[in-house]
Amino acid sequence: MITILNEVKSLGVFVAYDVVYGVDNTRYTSQLEEEINRIVEEIRGALSLETLKDHHIIRAYRDFYWKTLKIDPTKQRPAQEALLRRVLRGESLPRINPVVDAGNAISIKYIVPIGLYDISKIHGKTLRIRLSRKGEVFHPIGGQPHELDDQIVLASNDQILHVYPYRDSVETKIDVSTKDVLIVVAGVPGVEEERLINATLHLRRLLSLLGGVADGDVRLA
């Protein structure tokens, strides 16, 4: 389902991805709540706000922002770092809906950015990670539509799902009506494939608590 074009693969971009069908995203289960709370407490015991920036995985994503994306990661933080900082300050994880909350919990546990997409809203079955084309417009969650300029994107033929590896589109966002979910865990140089695979498998298990059933093995691209 996902291929990475050579123009982007040369930058060290890679992903693990999975498809989970049949989730019930209308209500939280006690098991899911317990798992999310357990992960939050585990993270608070394992990491500290003062040393987070020196963690080798955080460092890898920050370096990718600086060197490849030309983004200052202290101003536009990697998504998982922003969530971790919130938790380590004693705040709760944001509560949006069960699927997204499960994704956020796994994101902080494995320190990787996770994109979640409603399959029913995706145009077509083939997705590519590539550079954006002149004139393409992105519709971010929580932001205004804007034209992209030579950025790494996850896209179908006529739809931008994600600006890599930090912002998702409102067009394919997860909501309470979502049944079938595409999981994409974004990798950068210095992050091992096994971490992405384990994060994907763990999220698959959490979504099974919402009735979700995975489609085959976790795939890498």
UniProtKB/TrEMBL annotation:
It comes from the Archaea. Its EC number is 2.7.9.2. Residues 60-212 form the B3/B4 tRNA-binding domain. One of its GO terms (molecular function) is pyruvate, water dikinase activity. Keywords: Transferase. SMART domains: B3_4. This is Phosphoenolpyruvate synthase.
